[in-house]
What we know:
Elements: H1 5-10, H2 17-27, E1 35-36, H3 40-47, H4 58-67, E2 70-71, H5 83-89, E3 103-107, E4 111-112, E5 115-116, E6 119-127, E7 134-139, H6 141-146, H7 158-172, E8 181-184, H8 191-201, E9 205-206, E10 215-220, E11 225-230, E12 240-245, H9 248-265
Antiparallel strand pairs: 1-2, 3-6, 4-5, 6-7, 8-12, 9-10, 10-11, 11-12
Amino acid sequence: xxxxxxxxxxxxxxxxxxxxxxxxxxxxxxxxxxxxxxxxxxxxxxxxxxxxxxxxxxxxxxxxxxxxxxxxxxxxxxxxxxxxxxxxxxxxxxxxxxxxxxxxxxxxxxxxxxxxxxxxxxxxxxxxxxxxxxxxxxxxxxxxxxxxxxxxxxxxxxxxxxxxxxxxxxxxxxxxxxxxxxxxxxxxxxxxxxxxxxxxxxxxxxxxxxxxxxxxxxxxxxxxxxxxxxxxxxxxxxxxxxxxxxxxxxxxxxxxxxxxxxxxxxxx
Length: 268
């Protein structure tokens, strides 16, 4: 799919879980094995305190119906998105909880020697323009209830989390890992648009993962290459481009072309 940057901003192509599975199998056959769906009853039970099934962002419902019980060998974050563990945690009826009309927990932070890591929540009051997704935040539950601490936003939406993790885990971190090349384009707000225009001119195009202004996966079928543009965020305040080709010779060609234009892309 080819779009200009302005077209992408106006109508960001959505992520579908079915498309995500197709992308994963194309880049790493067998990578979707081990996925286990949540049952219909589990999904209803998870949604019920928040107002019913229609309150769940559709992309999250697709996720639950595909891998809500288990993501197999794919690790989305530190901790778990398992629906059985999310439901089990709710059994403490006396616990004080965040406003269920606004916040829906979708991931439980990992326990380690530093204690419990923050959990991940949907902010249901901040939906995307197409209604398919919502903003996500990472915060300790007690801080979300008290309002005494700022939440982190690791990715703007659940779709962006999936895009970034899938490309990284399935494509960029494949062996040999050293083949992936990263470019830091600095904090220029126009760097993402410049990188997108440049890569599409080289023949890259959007994938089944869709895109947003924050996370843009691109693929070059003829060169067997993948690129991931990540806009500046509160966690990493610069635009980055990560690049990997299946073939070492194609990787070298693309690296040379991008390196020749790196200063121009960063606005330097």
